[in-house]
Amino acid sequence: MSFFDSVYNNVSTALGMVMAVFLALSSSAALAAAPEPDPENTIYLDLKDGRVIIQLFPDVAPGHVERIKTLARQGFYDGIVFHRVIPGFMAQTGDPTGTGRGSSKLPDLKAEFSRKCHLRGVLSMARGTPEDSANSQFFIMLNDNDSLNGRYSVWGEVISGIQHVDKIKKGDPDRDGVIKGDPDRILKMRVAADVDGGASLKSDKVYRAMALDCHVN
Asked: Would the pTM count as exceeding 0.85?
């Protein structure tokens, strides 16, 4: 090995070690800076296979977050079915009639579109053709889908239990996700602060990954 080869190898090794240390410190700093979930802005969604924990985005969609908390506290969502579940896309619920045409008795909401991406685990409000027609129905993203960005109001994200969402009974993709037979349903949906003061949020299973901002045309 020549002198120059030796110097090159030593410099490359040193740079690699510096980069590894930098990445490790950056990762640790990011984890340390991640905020603890706020029990008042966290939802427990109980499904047949287990509990899903949802972090709400009151700074992104305050009206929608307030609606979700209000209906959850009323017990509105308990027992409501997932009436439309498209494999690889999303699972929709929140309609007391189970037809996709129902809603709560509260007024429709003004749209709160944002730059939040519709990534796997993100929750967004379903609506009709008018932008300000969201009410009680919502959907959970099973995979990323950029086509929804800026067109639906994102109000939260799954921070634990996404594997339980994956097990929701799927519908027929050729019939827009309509369920054949008995659909799965929400067992119970509550604000974490009302259940255990948010004690379950101390679990190591909870990850904190806020939905990213994305480009919206």
From this structure: no
Residue 16 in domain: yes
CA distances from 207 to 52, 80, 211 (A): 12, 27, 12
Q: Tell the residue number behind the tokens 């009302």, with chain if given.
A: 194
46 φ/ψ sector (left φ>0, alpha ψ -120 to 50, else beta): beta
Q: Which of 65, 78, 44 is nearest to 112 (CA)?
A: 65
> Rounded to an integer, what distance in angstroms lies between the CA atom of residue 127 and that of residue 129?
7
- Do β-strands 188-191 and 42-47 pair in parallel, antiparallel, or remain unpaired? antiparallel
In a domain, 216, yes or no: no
- For residue 133, tell me if it sits in a domain: yes
Domain assignment of residue 10, given as a range: 1-33
Residue pointed to by tokens 């129905």 = 137
At position 176, the amino acid (one-letter code) is D
What the block records as the tokens of 184 is 């799965």
Interval 167-178: pLDDT, tens: 999 999 999 999
Strand order of the β-sheet with 138-141 is: 84-86, 90-93, 138-141, 122-125, 154-160, 50-56, 42-47, 188-191
